[in-house]
Specification:
The protein is mostly helical. 83% of the residues lie in helices and 0% in strands.
Length: 132
């Protein structure tokens, strides 16, 4: 639905990044299910993300969507949940800024929700473990 929303907002870089993100997520899920490494997929999807970012370039704002998708592509390749959470924080921040600039208020709420989830996970699994 974010693809459709960004198209309607004229934010084509965001639309393409979300579209490729769906394909990337399905690919990662299949690779993990088959117990295969995702390193090659990270490289392939990174190249695709950069190419689509150039194709849909709409000025410096496009760098936010490109950076967000590149960072998430890298972060989802890690197996350690703590590392994934830490890499996801800047992803949420750049996407929230992109969403604000493009008037995607649902996107901003999504990023706030994700950051809240990361904060809860931090307190449940990291902070609590150090105070016990």
């Amino acid at each position: 639905m974010f693809v459709v929303q960004f198209i309607l907002l004229g934010a084509y870089t965001g639309a393409m990044m979300n579209g490729i993100g769906c394909i990337r997520n399905l690919t990662y899920a299949r690779l993990v299910e088959k117990k295969k490494d995702v390193k090659t997929a990270v490289i392939i999807f990174s190249v695709i993300i950069i190419a689509l970012g150039i194709f849909t370039w709409n000025g410096p704002v496009s760098l936010l969507a490109i950076a967000g998708k590149l960072l998430s592509t890298l972060s989802y390749a890690f197996k350690n949940p703590r590392t994934v959470r830490r890499f996801t924080i800047p992803v949420c921040i750049v996407w929230a800024v992109y969403d604000l600039i493009c008037s995607s208020y649902a996107g901003v709420l999504t990023e706030v929700f994700t950051l809240s989830s990361i904060a809860i996970a931090y307190f449940r699994f990291e902070y609590k473990a150090t105070t016990d």
